[in-house]
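Hello everyone,

My group is preparing for a crystallization screen and wants a predicted model to guide construct design. The compound we'll soak is adenosine-5'-triphosphate. Before spending weeks at the bench, it would help to have a computed complex in hand. I've included the protein sequence and the ligand's SMILES below. Output in structure-token form would be ideal because that's what our pipeline reads.
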Amino acid sequence: MKFSTKLGLWFFICLLIIESVSMLVLHRHVVDSLVKEELDSLLARGNSHRDVLETSFTPETLQHIVLMESNTDTEVVIIDENGSVIDSSVQKRNLPHYIIQSAPLTREVVVQDDWKQEAFIATVSPFLSEDGSTGYVYMLKSTNSLQKVIQQLNHHFAIAVVIIMFFLLVTNIFLIKLLTKPLIRMKDATHKISNGDFSVKLPVKTKDELGELAESIQSLANHLNHLQKERKEFLASISHELRTPLTYIKGYADLGRKPNLAESARLEYLNIIHEESTRVSSMLEDLFEMAKMDQNTFSIQPQRMDIEKFIRPIYEKARPAFENAGIHLMFKPNQSFEVLIDPRRFEQIVLNVLDNALKYSSAGSTTTIQLNKIGNESSLSIKDEGKGIPEEEIPFILDRFYRVEKSRSRLTGGVGLGLAIVSELVEAHGATLSINSKQHVGTAVTIVWKEIEDDKNSTD
Ligand SMILES: Nc1ncnc2c1ncn2[C@@H]1O[C@H](COP(=O)(O)OP(=O)(O)OP(=O)(O)O)[C@@H](O)[C@H]1O
Ligand SMILES: [Mg+2]
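Reply:
Good plan to model first. Here are the tokens for the complex, ready for your pipeline.
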């Protein structure tokens, strides 16, 4: 059974029970008060006849009372203390049995209120006249008219019940639709997602639990979509990145194999082959590294080191490459400090960032490595005066294979893995990475350690 049907049915049954019970109670109450009103008015009439008889118990008065009642829909029976009828507006054979058998009474009471079974409802008022004679005034009212009134009342109630049921049903359908529509939409969306279609759009209209659920499903779909796209791009990039250098290697190997080739040309081809195969192997190394990071089998072995002493040899190693490109590489260890680093991994971080500064700056510019310590924040930043990164691209710069320049020429040739690896390594070191860049001005990559003092204390 569908959820909406089930929910609707339950809802309807509950409402039906509530409505039936309240209608029954209301009906009971109305009927009871109707009967009570009739009995009260009978009692009042009986009492007024009693008052008359108590002051004047004469045959004329009796006759008068009987005559009065025979003109209305009520009846009167007057009996003496022995139970014999003195006068009556009802024929004797029609008299109800309880009138003749009645027990001695001192005050007025209801003697019959069963309007369903009996022919009459009845009250009695005892009297004691001035001349000492006693008796009882019975007032009767035929239940026919009462039954008719109640029948009519039942009829009205039935109509009311039907109308209310109809409105309940309509509201019920409307409410269930309102409630289950977003659920059905979400079910369809998750179904789509499970079939690999992540292009679902769930409008989040409300701020309640359903809205939150829709939002979660939407963000799940977006995330999966992103992952799928990333995976596709990843595979496409890998194959592309491998194909390009392999084409070069194959091409130059073919050229180099030719006989009668000048030694200098052969050397040049071999150099290119060497360069390209280094590229492939470094890329495979990067990929392997990232695979390890993804599997969480990757760990760093941190040691406490003086950052200036650590950076200086790297700076010396990198400087010739910068000089070759006409870029001035500066090292400004303003304040040195100690940090916990894995030397091999951290060198990888610095070299990757320097490699970018070198690749994306032009001759005549300056790249600066700076060390700073302000309060409990220590930082290493590498600033270049290169072409910078467009502002809208900065959020994606740490993604794998992301490059601002989409064309993968041999000259501008990165793969787009450098910063992805840097970001994961920095995180593994418990530091934070920030990238500030302005197009045509330059880029600053900063690694910040916080609360070095605490680190120091905890390891000392
Ligand atoms: N210092 C920088 N100045 C200008 N653009 C930069 C700089 N650093 C990175 N970028 C941009 O960010 C992109 C991603 O950098 P990343 O280091 O991840 O990849 P890559 O340098 O292209 O390739 P790889 O480092 O894997 O050889 C680069 O392609 C480049 O467009
Ligand atoms: Mg790079």
